[in-house]
Specification:
Layout: E1 14-16, E2 33-35, E3 44-51, H1 60-67, E4 71-75, H2 81-90, H3 93-97, E5 99-103, H4 107-117, E6 125-129, H5 136-148, E7 153-159, H6 162-170, E8 175-178, H7 188-192, H8 198-211, E9 215-219, H9 225-234, E10 238-241, E11 256-258, E12 261-267, H10 272-279, E13 292-296, H11 302-319, E14 333-335
Parallel strand pairs: 3-4, 3-10, 4-5, 5-6, 6-7, 7-8, 8-9, 9-10
Antiparallel strand pairs: 1-14, 2-3, 11-12, 12-13
The protein binds guanosine-5'-monophosphate (5GP).
């Protein structure tokens, strides 16, 4: 039995140390980053934040709203081909530039992506998404997609260790999605005992990816904009968000009215709710690995986006990073045992 003794860290275990800075104002910070990729020759420019490919979050409506901020949306895999056709017919070029098409690893997924790409040459990104990116079958599928699409930007995941990041990059991924068990509505760590604290996963996986000219997406675990800053500070090239974008008008789901308050349901993609919605049942060999939660309805997503981008700009100002790209090299983490001062939290409404 081998036990790794060094402590692995999550966002709550660290803060970023402030540094001398010549920046006068947050408005001087540029969050737009230009990317070139290991395989694809496409250049992409934008804010490297991605709405998660969960069916409640990665909607066409979310893509339309977030593209106005140059933010990406990983559109979930449950839209039919006809729904894609209708969306592509009316979507602006800017929206299509901020769309990632999610697929699983079945032959039908492969067929579907071919049909979707035939509708528009403006679509650039594919995300091959599985809960467990450690399977041989997944790696073989990634190789097949890369062979067929030498020039698309391909994301693949999820994994949390450097050796598997390397394998996915060598098998054709431009971007590897990192995170197991850190999501806000995920119960994988409880159900299986498997997982990896997100900040350490980012630091280790970014190191592995960058050594091969690949990139990583930190997926899951960000609860506030400070966590997004820590993810970028730790070396993430892109950050994917589920819970932070939940409960908005752009999400899938009904607004539930109770007394004078409004709520929305948000659930994990491996929850009983999601499995029943998409397959009609929970297969006998599977257990739910996701939660269902009722959260306050927050209206349009714009205010939330402005809030997180403002927080990120402020983080950059504190360490003197004029561009988001500089945040990693200007970040020194300090280990802490305290975060927010919560003395007035019960007065929140
Ligand atoms: P969040 O930003 O909400 O903390 O995390 C979002 C991520 O959680 C998603 O992108 C996905 O990787 C993960 N996730 C979503 N639903 C589930 C689920 O039901 N089970 C697990 N294990 N992970 C989930």
């Amino acid at each position: 039995m081998r036990i790794e003794e060094d402590i692995k860290l999550g966002f709550k275990d660290v803060l970023i140390r402030p540094k001398r800075s010549i920046l006068k104002s947050r408005s001087e910070v540029n969050l737009i980053r230009s990317f070139s990729f290991k395989y694809s020759t496409i250049k992409w420019c934008g804010i490297p934040i991605i709405a998660a490919n969960m069916d409640t979050i990665g909607t066409f409506c979310m893509a339309k709203s977030l593209s106005q901020f140059n933010i990406l949306t990983a559109v979930h895999k449950y839209y039919s081909f006809n729904e894609w056709r209708e969306f592509i017919n009316i979507a602006s070029e800017n929206t299509l530039n901020h769309v990632i098409i999610t697929i699983g690893t079945s032959d039908l997924d492969f067929l579907k992506i071919k049909k979707i790409f035939s509708l528009s040459s403006k679509l650039k990104y594919i995300c091959i998404d599985v809960a467990n990116g450690y399977s041989e079958n997944f790696v073989d599928f990634l190789k097949k997609v890369r062979e067929f699409y030498p020039d698309k930007i391909i994301c693949a995941g999820n994994v949390v260790t450097g050796e598997m990041v390397e394998e996915l990059i060598l098998s054709g991924a431009d971007l590897v999605k990192v995170g197991i068990g850190s999501g806000s509505v995920c119960t994988t760590r409880v159900k299986t005992g498997i997982g990896y604290p997100q900040l350490s996963a980012i630091i280790e996986c970014a190191d592995a990816a960058h050594g091969l000219s690949g990139h990583i997406i930190s997926d899951g675990g960000c609860t506030v904009s400070g966590d997004i800053a820590k993810a970028f500070g730790g070396g993430a090239d892109f950050v994917m968000l589920g819970g932070i974008f939940a409960g908005h008008s752009e999400c899938l789901g009904d607004v539930i009215k109770e007394k004078s308050k409004k709520f929305m349901l948000f659930y994990g993609m491996s929850s009983t709710s999601a499995m029943k919605r998409h397959t009609g049942k929970v297969p006998g060999y599977r257990a739910s690995e996701g939660k269902i939660v009722k959260i306050p309805f927050r209206g349009k997503v714009d205010a939330t986006v402005r809030d997180i981008l403002g927080g990120l700009r402020s983080a950059c100002t504190y360490v003197g990073a004029q561009k988001l790209k500089e945040l990693t090299k200007r970040t020194t983490f300090i280990r802490v045992s305290e975060q927010e001062n919560c003395v007035f939290n019960h007065f929140k409404n």
